[in-house]
Amino acid sequence: MFWPKPSLRDRHRPPLVIKALTPRLSSISSEMAAPHSIEPEYDLVFAGGGTAACVTASRLAKAFPNLSILVLESGPTTEGKKEHIQPGQFPVHLPPTSKTMTVTTSKPSKHVADREIEIRGGHCVGGGSSVNWMYYNRPSKSDFDDWVTQYGNEGWSSKELIPLLEKAETYECAPQPADSWLRRPVESLFLEVGPKVDKYRPLGTEGNDFTANSLNKYCNMPKWVSSNGRRSDVPHHYVYGKGLSNLHVKDGCLVNRVIVEDGVATGVEYLFDKRIYEGAPQDKHVVKARKLVVLGAGAMGNPLILERSGIGRKDILERAGIPLVCELPGVGANYQDHSVWVTPYIVDDSCESMNKLWRGDADTWAKAGEQWEKDGSGILGTSSLEIAIKLRPLDHEVADLGPEFQPVWDEFYANKPDKPLIWVCLMVGLPADQSAMPPLNFIITANSLNYPVSRGHQHIASADPYDKPDFQCGFISHPADLAAHRWGYKKSHEVTRRMACFRGALGPAHPAYPSGSAAAAQIAETGPAPIDAPDVTYSAADDEAIDACIRNSISTTFHSLGTCAMKPREKGGVVDNKLNVYGIKNLKVADVSIPPQNVHSNTYSLAVVIGEKAAVIIAEELGGSL
């Protein structure tokens, strides 16, 4: 079924460059309806309407039709909006002024060349599922099993969670050899060259079977995109149009704090978000929860709500002038992400890419729009993330990562063969502002670290919900993470520079090697190296140049997690294995803020399985089942 068609002019209006998209997004928000009428009391109240919250709330609403459920989401609704439906439009959510993503700025750190790194997260109904890049990636079995064996979370093993993840999935095609899925020459070249350059890493089928079989294979990876070219987000599949009259999702409602009376959560205090409802009165309102309050505002939002509620580390609350309700030092600690180093390359014009679309070329947009309206195909029907490899060092390669990495390998990786170190993907386009760049054909490789050792934090700086938080992402603060990114770049670069379409590295985004080094010579190449060319030899000075480039370029995959960790209270935990906040009754946290330890997947699939598990737990406590 196709969505209603707007006027031809609106349908194919190009976004120009990303900077120019900002007014378009602002006009979307200004057309929203007036603030909602909300009843004074519901059975369940969700503070935050992200991916996991929408899954949990919808499952419970269907299973318990007499249960009244309220979801308060601070961002806008997404229902029927093409910027949330057409996969190729995902860059429209990236500008700093976006109303569909929050931007949280990390404090400067010497580890990232004193930069302030911007971390984005979903700020709309469905959270990240409505704005992400739609790459589908499952965790490994050991990722879940670690939560049980290392942190004592009974009920959260792979045996119990994998069926819940499969419950949410619909595969519209069976896994096939990667070379049978190819759509564009550049992808074919990457998959053709990879196994030739690295004889230990062959062509695979699909890297998502939860085991070590998914690792060290060049694969065409699935996406959260349906066969008719629609984003597979949670709201359009769990919430909208499902006839759940007892489920009430209210957008533009910013939860300030949880109301706690005598150690029991009885409701939440909220206000209409002025970033969504401009000019809305900033009076605070209270809605009561007869049975349960569930926090679903994500790894960035949940610790702030808890701390404004008086739940957290005593000194942080005192500085903000908030009375202590429950001392829980783990709130806001343990911040984790998948740090990523993106390196762009120039390719020849034989490679079909997303660049003209993302530059706003009017003719490209018109043709792409017509094609998508016809059958959902074409460049608007894909995110352009098609292929990847999950890299894990082989035994003879571990030493290449250096002495900083060896202890981490021995302790964390060596006995868990299903854990990849680096995820490398190829994107056929550059999803960034290209207005100051020559109109060349770009691709990027992204090297994402799956299990960073580095940690950060997310805390309030004041009691004002609009204030900038005290946030530190912690990227590259542990030397093992730097070593891993250095190794991943070298591996992916050897493949990319041998592709027949290769026309050079986009110099400013790559290391500035010392003059005269072998690495400096190859980075200046403007054509492909032979398949049998020797790998680049790097000197110690070259490695220093790579490290400097990493510190100046490292960024985020938007995979924030861990700030309300599910582990014992005495070890910094915030919730138990039933998702209950320690020390407070009738209060749970249920989203990607609860993992005590990272997983190698993108956080969309993780959020879905946490949402499904939370629904099972709450249903059992309500005396029913799903």
Automatic annotation (TrEMBL):
Q: What cofactors does this protein use? A: FAD
- Start and end residues of each Glucose-methanol-choline oxidoreductase N-terminal domain: 42-340
Coiled-coil regions in this chain? Answer: none
Q: Does the keyword Aminoacyl-tRNA synthetase apply?
A: no
Q: Which InterPro entries match?
A: FAD/NAD-bd_sf, GMC_OxRdtase, GMC_OxRdtase_N, GMC_OxRtase_C
Instruction: Kindly list the positions annotated as binding FAD.
Output: V255
Q: Where are the transmembrane segments?
A: none
- Pfam family membership, one: GMC_oxred_N
- Tell me the segments the record calls region Disordered: 78-109
Start-end of Polar residues biased regions: 97-107
**Name of the featured protein:** GMC oxidoreductase
